[in-house]
């Protein structure tokens, strides 16, 4: 391991390697209808360290979801590399779990069986204890008593809790969240945002969290990655610099929160304007 020398001549350990390392990542698609090639994202570089909560913010169509899908192993890069714990991403793996905006629950399965599906996907039903793991995940997201309910019997917020439990049950190192609160009402969104923050702080998961909400990006993120569009690329990366725990009420008068909100608003407004002009 490489070391450096401190002021007193004592060796200092090198900083830990990032858990997620993205280098010169580009994704292009051939559009059959027009015969043209669409550049979804281009030249993306990003490191995410163990235990970080990184929010990804940008205008619609800027490639945020494509970026997350490459890290998840659901989309192959056209150029560049994505490493997780030093190994190339070649497909989905047990070290990563995805939480989708539209819940993606199986309507014919109960809450218990939908959460169990997270273990089935990772072939984690062997041996003893898997039922306890499913039950613990359900209780962790506050759905004890609803194990036998079907998705149609649940509110949108409750359905998303099932999605969270399904992701947590497999005990991944990395959670990839694609607008997980985008389909719920404003009050539920605020409550669930606080609950997600508490869960992540409790479990120490590494998170990539995509959102369109400036306030959400600030409240949840240790760092905020701002994407620009056409083609999608990283515009800037900002350290949040706010103490935890955070809530919308506790930070709404904080000068740092107000500074970040104004800066991000101007950045996104500029990107939205540029995107409209380019159409």
What would CATH call the architecture of the largest domain? 3-Layer(aba) Sandwich
Number of domains: 2
- Sheet bearing the most strands, described? 6 strands, mixed
Report low-confidence residues grouped into runs of 5 or more.
1-5
Order of helices and strands: EEEEEHEEEHHHEHEHEEHH
The averaged pLDDT comes out at: 88
Strand percentage: 25-35%
Query: What radius of gyration results from the CA coordinates?
Result: 20 Å
The residue fraction in helices comes out at: 25-40%
| β-strand number | 12
CATH superfamily of the largest domain: P-loop containing nucleotide triphosphate hydrolases
| Measured distance between first and last alpha carbons | 50 Å
The tally of helices reads 8
Strand order of the largest sheet: 8-9-10-5-11-12
The CATH topology of the largest domain turns out to be: Rossmann fold
Coarse morphology: globular
**What is the CATH domain class of the largest domain?**
Alpha Beta
Assign the structural class, choosing from mainly alpha, mainly beta, alpha/beta, alpha+beta, or little secondary structure: alpha/beta
Organism: Agromyces lapidis
Protein name: ABC transporter ATP-binding protein
Keywords: ATP-binding, Nucleotide-binding, Transport
Pfam families: ABC_tran
Walk me through the structure:
This protein has 279 residues and is of the alpha/beta class. It has two domains: 142 residues, Rossmann fold (3-Layer(aba) Sandwich); 62 residues, no CATH class. It has eight helices and twelve strands. The strands form three sheets. It has a six-stranded mixed β-sheet with strand order 8-9-10-5-11-12, with helices on both faces. A four-stranded antiparallel β-sheet has the order 4-3-6-7, with helices on one face. Helix 2 packs across helix 3, helix 2 packs parallel to helix 4 and helix 3 packs across helix 4. The longest helix is centred in the last third of the chain and has 24 residues. It is globular, with a radius of gyration of 20 Å.
């Amino acid at each position: 391991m490489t070391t450096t020398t401190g002021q007193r001549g004592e060796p200092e350990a090198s900083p830990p390697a990032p858990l997620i390392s993205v280098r010169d990542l580009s994704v292009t698609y051939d559009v059959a209808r027009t015969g043209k090639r669409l550049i979804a994202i281009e030249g993306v570089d990003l490191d995410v360290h163990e235990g970080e909560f990184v929010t990804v913010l940008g205008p619609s169509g800027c490639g945020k979801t494509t970026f997350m899908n490459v890290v998840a192993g659901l989309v192959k890069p056209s150029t560049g590399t994505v490493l997780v714990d030093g190994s190339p991403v070649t497909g989905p793996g047990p070290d990563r779990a995805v939480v989708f905006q539209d819940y993606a629950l199986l309507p014919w399965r109960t809450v218990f069986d939908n959460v169990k599906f997270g273990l089935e996907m990772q072939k984690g039903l062997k041996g003893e204890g898997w039922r306890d793991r499913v039950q613990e995940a359900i209780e962790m997201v506050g759905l004890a008593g609803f194990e036998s309910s079907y998705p149609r019997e649940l509110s949108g917020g409750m359905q998303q809790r099932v999605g969270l439990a399904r992701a947590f049950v497999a005990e991944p190192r990395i959670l990839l969240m694609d607008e997980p609160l985008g389909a719920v009402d404003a009050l539920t969104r605020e409550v669930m945002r606080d609950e997600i923050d508490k869960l992540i702080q409790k479990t120490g998961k590494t998170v990539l969290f995509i959102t369109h909400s400036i306030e959400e990006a600030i409240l949840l993120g240790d760092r905020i990655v701002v994407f620009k569009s056409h083609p999608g690329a990283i515009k800037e990366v900002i350290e949040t610099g706010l103490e935890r725990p955070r809530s919308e009420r506790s930070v709404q008068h904080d000068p740092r929160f107000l500074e970040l909100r104004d800066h991000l608003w101007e950045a996104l407004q500029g990107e939205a304007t540029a995107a409209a002009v380019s159409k």
